[in-house]
Each structure stands twice: as structure tokens, then as C-alpha cells.
Design brief:
mainly alpha, 3-stranded antiparallel sheet, flat
Length: 404
């Protein structure tokens, strides 16, 4: 049976012409077509079902990195002259992520049926945003899809790289503090009580610091379930509120920009994403006003999103982009001047690209500097916390001589 257009794997059981039970695995675009094909081969199908995905050996979740890699692969295939449908076939069948494999082959099926690529991608908004679809659509209309796919791939790679840098800056201290809290809780719940039993037979007053630590230990022993449960509920509630409430999200974004050391990283990364997105869309021929909606969503910060939408309204009335940027007071003077030069010289996309390159490098340097700063600071905090507990437990032992 031909498998050139097959996209779904089925397992089946049936009887052949001699009445013997047979079973196998085949690919077809639908269950009905597979049954018809089996009958043509002289097999009476009794059971036909889709092959279940293995629990191991392939991640089902589709990440932003998967989409970025897909964009680069498709761009490479198109630039090499491989037809679009065949490109999907090659990329889809060779993908390790089974969820991504299904997504690519589903898009391939839509394109084969005559759907435009931009429309086929638009059916999966969780994975392909408006910016991605708009740029693909612009490439289809201009006849330069391979060029636009290359721009999309470059854009996705750079934006994902800067997101990874920001996550790196925030993840490391968070992870260390979580570990520190867990270790401290274990010491307070299991270790300190052992010393407390020992101190009970000393017959001497305990130091104030030791009594303070024992008091905290008593609280943890009695209410550990409430403490850990409360922290878990707070984290869950906070994450849900952040996802569902624009007001909470806006408040978090405003506060985060004011945090020392971290704030400048988030601000520069928002400016880099703004410049990179606008540069990519403008160079693809998307009108400035139309591009601003996608740019607003790509900044990753509610404050910059609101400012971009205000800039869109202002530019739609004929105001220059550099003027609207200056009025927001969110962009450094260097960025405004670069945009002004770009508008005057007719090379706005090139200037915005240079701005994006500069701020991406700035974010990289700030993240490296933050890591260098935090490593000794975190070690000092851990030393103070754990060392403080140890000192508190050994202080009474120093008084043991006077009791004896």
C-alpha cells in the first residue's frame, strides 16, 4: 500500500482469505481508507485503531524552542529548493518530539488540501502567534516565502535566546533559595529537636539565641503542614492570578522593573524584543501601524505593551515613531536617536536591528554580571542561615563546664 500521503499510524487485526487471523501496522490518512485498502488486499479488518503514543521516548509538550527549530528547518529546506509539502514530510517524520511531529503532519495535510500556509498555521494559535502567521502571509503574497521564513527563523532564535538569558538570571537565585529553605526546614524539624532533648538535662539556662531557634523549631514541628501548604497555595494562587488578571500582571511587571539589578535586565530585554520584532516585521514589508499590534505582544512587559499600543495610535495619525517613543519616557535617548536616524534615512529596519543587537548583548553582559554577583552573596546567606543554626545548638554546650 502506498504511504506517500499517509499521516496516521494504525494497528489492525483481521482475517485473510484462508480464514487465518492476521495483524499488522499501517499508515493511512483515515481509518476508512485503511479498511478499504486492507479489503483490496484480501484482508477482512476486524479491529482498527490508532497506534498509541509510547510513554517514554519522546516529549509530547511543544515548547517555544521546538517552534524556533521548526522555523529554521523549514527555512533551510525552502532555501535549498525542497517543495513545501515535502519539507513538512521530512521535518515531521524526523522530529523526536511526537507532539511536534503530529502538529507538523497536520499542517502538511492542510497545505496538501489547498489551504494557505499562513491559514494552516493560524489553526494552531497556541504555537504560532499572529506575528508568525502575518510574516508567513506576507511571504506568500510577495512570492518570497523562503526569504521571510529565514527572517522568522532568525527572529525566533534571537528572541528565544534573550528569553533564556532572562530566565537564567531569575532561576539560579530562586532555585538556591528554595533549596536553602528546604534544608533549613529539615534541620528545624528533625535535627534541632534532638539537641533540645539533650539540653533538657543540662540544668542551666539556655542562651537567648538558642531559645529563639528552639521556638522556631517548635513552630515548624507543630505547623509544618500549614507552612508548606500555605506556601504551595500562595505560589499556585499567585501564578493563577498572574495568568488570569491583567491588573495583577501589570502590577508585577511595573514592580519587577524597579527591582535593583534584575530591573535593568528586564527593561533592556523588553527594548531588545521591541526592536527585534519591529525590525523583522518592517523589513518584511508589513506597514508600521499594522506591525505595532504584534510588537506590543512581543515585548513581554505590560508597561511596554501599553506604550506600544499608544505609539500605534499616535503613528496612525501621522506622528513620527521617534516622537511617540520619546513621549513614553520608556526608551533611552540612544534608542530614540537611532530610530530618528532610521526614519530620516529610510533604513528604519536596519537601525532597529542594530538597537536589538546592542541591547541583546547588554542583557547577556548583565546576566553574566548578576551570576558573578549572586554566587558569593548566596553562599554568604546560606552560611549565615545554616551556620547560625549550628552555633545556636552548640552555645549551650559551652556552658556545660560551669554546670558540671
Amino acid at each position: 500500500m502506498s504511504t506517500q500521503t499517509a499521516s496516521i499510524t494504525f494497528v489492525w487485526e483481521g482475517k485473510n482469505k484462508t480464514g487465518s487471523r492476521v495483524k499488522g501496522e499501517s499508515q493511512a490518512s483515515s481509518e476508512i481508507l485503511l479498511k478499504a485498502d486492507l479489503r483490496r488486499q484480501g484482508i477482512n479488518p476486524l479491529k482498527v485503531k490508532k497506534k498509541s503514543k509510547p510513554l517514554l521516548g519522546g516529549n509530547q509538550k511543544i515548547t517555544a524552542k521546538d517552534i524556533s527549530i521548526f522555523a529554521r528547518q523549514l527555512s533551510t529546506m525552502m532555501n535549498a529548493g525542497v517543495p513545501l509539502v515535502q519539507s513538512f514530510e521530512i521535518i515531521g517524520k524526523g522530529h523526536e518530539n511526537l507532539g511536534m511531529q503530529d502538529l507538523i503532519l497536520e499542517i502538511k495535510s492542510d497545505v496538501e488540501s489547498g489551504t494557505n500556509l499562513s491559514d494552516a498555521l493560524g489553526k494552531h494559535p497556541l504555537h504560532f502567534d499572529d506575528l508568525f502567521c502575518n510574516l508567513v502571509g506576507a511571504g506568500e503574497h510577495s512570492g518570497a516565502l523562503d526569504t521571510l521564513l529565514d527572517k522568522i527563523a532568525t527572529y525566533k532564535e534571537k528572541t528565544e535566546a534573550i528569553k533564556a538569558k532572562v530566565k537564567k538570571a531569575l532561576f539560579y537565585p530562586t532555585a538556591v533559595m528554595v533549596v536553602a529553605f528546604v534544608v533549613t526546614a529539615i534541620l528545624l524539624i528533625f535535627v534541632v529537636p534532638q539537641f533540645q532533648d539533650l539540653f533538657a538535662g543540662f540544668g542551666a539556662d539556655l542562651p537567648a539565641f538558642t531559645l529563639f531557634v528552639i521556638g522556631i523549631s517548635d513552630i515548624f514541628q507543630k505547623w509544618w503542614w500549614a507552612i508548606f501548604g500555605g506556601i504551595g497555595l500562595f505560589i499556585y494562587g499567585f501564578s493563577q492570578a498572574k495568568k488570569r488578571s491583567p491588573t495583577v500582571q501589570r502590577t508585577i511587571d511595573i514592580i519587577s522593573l524597579k527591582i535593583p539589578v534584575v530591573g535593568p535586565i528586564l527593561r533592556k530585554s523588553a527594548i531588545a524584543r521591541f526592536a527585534r520584532t519591529l525590525s523583522t516585521m518592517f523589513s518584511a514589508g508589513v506597514p508600521l501601524v499594522e506591525a505595532m499590534d504584534s510588537v506590543a505582544g512581543a515585548t513581554g512587559n505590560a508597561l511596554y505593551k501599553e506604550a506600544t499600543l499608544r505609539m500605534k495610535d499616535a503613528t496612525s495619525t501621522g506622528t513620527q515613531l521617534q516622537q511617540t517613543m520619546r513621549e513614553t519616557a520608556l526608551f533611552p535617548n540612544m534608542v530614540v536617536q537611532m530610530v530618528a536616524i532610521g526614519e530620516e534615512s529610510g533604513s528604519l529596519d536596519e537601525m532597529l536591528g542594530k538597537v536589538a543587537d546592542f541591547f541583546e548583548e547588554e542583557v547577556d553582559n548583565l546576566v553574566d554580571g548578576l551570576s558573578s554577583l549572586l554566587e558569593p552573596l548566596i553562599m554568604a546567606v546560606l552560611g549565615i542561615v545554616v551556620g547560625g543554626l549550628v552555633v545556636a545548638m552548640y552555645l549551650p554546650i559551652f556552658k556545660l563546664g560551669s554546670v558540671v
